[in-house]
Amino acid sequence: MNRNHASEANPVRDMLVFLYTFGLVFGAIGAYFGVDTWLFLDKARHANGTVVALKEQMYWQTWPIVAFETVSGTRVKFQSNVPSKPSPRFPIGTRVDVLYEEREPSNARINSFVDMWGLPLCFGGMGLVFLALGTTALILGPRSSSSSGQAARPRSQ
Prior knowledge:
alpha+beta; 46% helix
């Protein structure tokens, strides 16, 4: 048995494996973030917050730092997980709606579509794109030589 023949690279198969693997991984990450957001929203409480500072880092990204008061009167500050660039989405002094966990008020988020659903949609969307590309490559890709050989055979009369 010739082992070299069995281990020959199949670029179409390799591309499909790559596309489907990345699609499934990104889809799983998007699903994880989506479930995490859903569970967070299920137990979150509202509060009025104010952007009190901006944390700037490389590539001109800024993260708002928000202060709010819980229902029990505890003052809390947190940094948003969603940066903006090149200018801040929420300048200092901006009032924002905050969602937080009552048992752990430092686990808080700005109540905006981007802050809540940005990661699930970004990763889930990228996963769908990779899966769609893989499916398109599978459907439109080259056919195997055995199936084309059968189609080219002349019929016997």
